[in-house]
Amino acid sequence: MVKIAILGHGVVGSGVAQGLFSKTELFRRKFENKDLIKRKIGEEIILKKILDIKEFKNLSYSNLFVKDFDEILNDDEISIVVETMGGLNPAYEFVKKLLEKKKSVVTSNKELVCEKGEELLKIAKDNGVSFLFEASVGGGMPIVKPLQFYFVSSGIDSIEGILNGTTNFILTKMAQEKISFEEALKLAQELGYAEKDPSDDINGIDSARKICILAELAYLKYVPFKKVSVKGIKDINLIDILYGRSVDMVLKLVATVEFSYNFIENIEVRPCFLERTHRLYSIDGVLNGVVVNGNVMFTGEGAGRFPTAGAVWSDIAFIVKNNFRNISPVLERDDHFTSLSYEEERRKFYIRLKAKDLDKAKKVIKDYFALNFKIMDKDVKCVRDIEYLDREGKKEDELALIVCGILKKEVLDLEKILNESGIEMKAYFEILSKDY
Length: 436
Ligand code: HSE
Fold this sequence. Notes:
Blueprint: E1 2-7, H1 11-21, H2 24-27, H3 33-41, E2 45-51, E3 65-66, H4 70-73, E4 78-83, H5 91-100, E5 104-107, H6 110-126, E6 131-132, H7 144-149, E7 158-162, H8 165-177, H9 181-190, H10 199-202, H11 205-219, E8 229-230, H12 238-246, E9 249-259, E10 264-275, E11 287-292, E12 296-301, H13 305-321, E13 347-354, H14 358-373, E14 386-389, E15 398-406, H15 408-420, E16 424-432
Parallel strand pairs: 1-2, 1-4, 2-3, 4-5, 5-6, 8-10, 10-16
Antiparallel strand pairs: 7-9, 7-11, 9-10, 11-12, 13-15, 13-16, 14-15
Helix pairs in contact: 1-13, 5-6, 6-11, 8-9
The structure holds L-homoserine.
L-homoserine (HSE) binds at residues 139, 164-166, 201, 206, 302-303.
């Protein structure tokens, strides 16, 4: 028999508790869920205490609530604590104390793992217990354990993922319903996907924290959050999504990390277009998706009470099945952390301009790229080409194009040159296709 506690009875915490107490209606099962958990884990799991400052009077387990953290910290019967409070404080202080008391901790708190993971993992190891965080990335998409325990012999060269359900829902709805960013965000809030304050989601911060955590699991070194280059989706215009659709591309918020033998080449979050050949092309709505090494794919519901609670339960199972030994990764401190810019690599970009004279704009572009094409290296992966796009309802001063085999700095350079000719670059996005 294993006794556990939960810190925070919010969306995820209540899902963890209900995972144990629910019967048919929540998990569509014809038997008590706790029996299934017992059969899977091989031990009966007893939820002994739940910490929350709010009152929860009408639950079948209302008697379990406590308001004083020390009641859990000093309860020697409790061996695993689930932290689902979110935020850094007091979660950090609580988790640290629990690990020092030799209790294993399972968390869904990506901010905590991203900011304090390195230290907490070391404390867990020193105390012979585990600090696990499957639920911190991808909700119901299993990705943390595969990165930790799989790819042992092959190593990991790259991770590319859609790691935020809210933004993926917004971008999917904009494309499907032809609605603006603001309308899609409102819809996400009405349906309960987006938080009341969705800034971390739409600014790309949530995805950046998650790619940092995944990078650390792959690299086994501490990756400072500030090294992630982040661009969110709040300035996305429906016009660009429609141009993308005209050539069968979808716009997604993609988090990427690429490794070289001993350093990170590139770690970033940004909206980009995906061609149909890309494995994340069809990851729509609140789904998350991750592609490892360009060919191993994971997907699942990236947010929501029960998918995320399920990830918490999988960590509890791992701890019990491993006899409470430390099975967490340990991160090396890398004082020489390097993140090379990927600027050296030539890529494919979508660009949209606003210009009174479209012929003049086309000439500026042609002259600029003609000059640069002469000095291109032999490693260019795609045909160097310019394709002009069309869309239904195209305005007279709009010019959208796709250019292959260019550097990001050339796009920025072109923006300056266009500006000098009175032409405004309204948007540009990298285009990703299947990486062969
Ligand atoms: N706000 C997050 C998302 C929740 O939308 O993906 C899961 O981390």
